[in-house]
Amino acid sequence: xxxxxxxxxxxxxxxxxxxxxxxxxxxxxxxxxxxxxxxxxxxxxxxxxxxxxxxxxxxxxxxxxxxxxxxxxxxxxxxxxxxxxxxxxxxxxxxxxxxxxxxxxxxxxxxxxxxxxxxxxxxxxxxxxxxxxxxxxxxxxxxxxxxxxxxxxxxxxxxxxxxxxxxxxxxxxxxxxxxxxxxxxxxxxxxxxxxxxxxxxxxxxxxxxxxxxxxxxxxxxxxxxxxxxxxxxxxxxxxxxxxxxxxxxxxxxxxxxxxxxxxxxxxxxxxxxxxxxxxxxxxxxxxxxxxxxx
Length: 294
Known about the structure:
A six-stranded mixed β-sheet has the order 1-2-3-6-4-5, with helices on both faces. By secondary structure, it is α/β, with parallel strands linked by helices. The chain is 47% helix and 12% strand. Helix 6 (139-153) packs parallel to helix 9 (195-207). It is built from twelve helices and six strands. The protein has helices spanning 2-7, 66-73, 89-99, 114-126, 131-134, 139-153, 162-173, 183-187, 195-207, 209-225, 228-233, 243-269, and strands spanning 20-23, 37-43, 46-53, 77-80, 176-179, 275-281.
């Protein structure tokens, strides 16, 4: 369960039969630079580059392979899941208030075990956070907030994520940025999780930090090497997961991939002789029912 959640921190309908999609690089290339997950799709005179992102980063992710930067430079548009740099704070606050805050007079203390609550309070003190400012939030939100802080403390940086790398370049170059999703799309799937599954996620965040860091480090090594097959294995879900988590996973992956594929198909079919550089989470581009598969 936690592996899937970490990967989508640390990212449809069928592409027309007449489209030609090819992996731009394979893991055997010796040219320096991270290879990532990188595809080129052509339809008539339109081109879409699909690049799989890791949402958090470390310096060793760079430089990127020269073919990746060349493809970006040749594109008229940068397409991302969501342009977080253009997100209005009031929109984020409104969405969080609706789905991530207890509005019934209770706090997180009333919904998780005493052991977990004590560990939570101990952890937030390490980050100089006030108890009253955290306990109003539901476990899924607290888990994600703390995950970001814990990863930052471990040396990972959101500013070094692949999305930010291209968003910053596009802002400087005044390249048009297109978002595939809204804040509601990004956060809405959390409402599927039961209180039990949310508590399990928070428990993992607090008590399995070392294991989680090892998984992220392994993910980054796969991504740097362009190991598509091993990355695709991470998209699989364990059978023993709860029914609500399976529904959550379906919404997080398959449902979003269907919607993003439909929009990407529109880029290919618009007949404008244009090139789009699309950056989405790496696992949206590998395995069965991914954007590339569809």
